[in-house]
Amino acid sequence: MNPIYSRMGTTIFEAMSARARATGAINLGQGFADGRGPEAVLAAGARALLERSNQYPPMAGLPELRQAVADHYARHQGLNLTVEEVIVTSGATEALAAALLALIEPGDEVVCFQPLYDAYVPLIRRAGGVPRFVRLRPPEWRIERAALEAAVTPRTRLILLNNPLNPAATMTGAEDLAMLADFCVAHDLTAICDEVWEQVTFDGARHLPLIDFPGMRERTVKIGSAGKVFALTGFKVGWMCAAPPLARVLAKAHQFLTFTTPPNLQWAVAEGLTTQDDWIRDARLRFQAGRDRLASGLRAAGFAVLPSAATYFLSVDLTASSIALDDVTFSERLVDEARVATIPVSAFYSEAPVTNVVRFCFVKEDAVLDEAIARVQAWRKALA
To answer: Which residues does the UniProt record annotate as the domain Aminotransferase class I/classII large (predicted)?
Structure first.
């Protein structure tokens, strides 16, 4: 067996979700939203399943969806992408796998920012790459030039950036993105940008894609996710956007992973990207209200809540909350004793983890959040 996988344990998401099921806990760990998503998208997918082709669509994606992705980014981010620069994938994780397999040669180093999505490191290693970690620290989770310079070596070829950053729930601002772009150009690096949370931003903030910064148009792979845009995580429809020389190689890796993606879901997502801008805006406001509701309840229980600028998540600082437990112990006790499941943020580090931060998911119905808040508040009183 390949040791990368044979030595790997169960993911923290599956482990905590299993404990939630076993204890009847409210699951504020795994990141999926309550609700059905946009009805127009569901209806388009159902119609396409019954009325249109269910045979292999084009490997790179249906032309309608590729054009819809390009048009969506033109409206929302001012990008000028062609259809040839968009490759449809079976979810953003497949896009990440394809990008890493396509761009890594054995021994190449990839700079990653911790905390990070747990798929990054095994995918890099399976492609023959070597992860090089830049450790971010709460509460700002800022990227510093000095830390980047310390991580880069003559073998470094790629930077893997998650922006907005899950689980820190931060957005990389224009100043830091400009610094990253300058750094990539100076060291001749290609950036793989995991931007699945780009439409789940709050307080009027607008996502800025690294591909649009000087020097980055020809050296960036931009990855997006319909599952995050429309809160339909089970759809598993994503995409990669890159200049033609990169896109052609990305497509070759993609064709030997999933080859293609269910055509009815592609037509559904094309419909959504074309017609559902109002739904995206309204969902952003609903999710922001859920963030504020949960944050208020946790603060009332005496927790120090870290800022949440984007994503489905917010975190609490246990040390600042005067709780003398590490994040794993806290999460295990909370799910067993209060029946509320969370995620310890140390699970998102491969080395030197932060151990005093716990993540909560807030994209739930108000009644669910209120019950979770009541349970956490009662548990915190007993803990004190």
So the answer is: 25-375
